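Hello Y.,

Per our agreement to keep a running log of every chain we model this quarter, I'm adding this entry. I've kept the format consistent with earlier entries: sequence first, then predicted structure.
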Amino acid sequence: MTNPTDRVFPSNGNVTYPGLTKREYFAAMALQGLCLRVSPDYTTGECNSKLVQRSCLLADLLMLELNKAASPDESKEAVK
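Predicted structure for the entry above:
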C-alpha cells in the first residue's frame, strides 16, 4: 500500500525536518519531467500553475495505480 502521507525516506530522528511525503516526492519528480518539455506558453503564472496542478495529479494517479491489487497472473506478466 502506498500511502501519500508516508515519508519517502525514513526519518533518522530529525524532528525539525521529517522529509518529503511520497505525494510531494512523486509530484516533484513529475514536475521535473514536465519542466523538461516546457514550451514558451509556460512563461506566465497561470501556465506555471497548470504545470504544478498536473504534477500533483500525476502523483495521485501514480499512487492509485501502485495501490491496485494485481492478481498473481498480472504480476507474472508484468515481469516478462
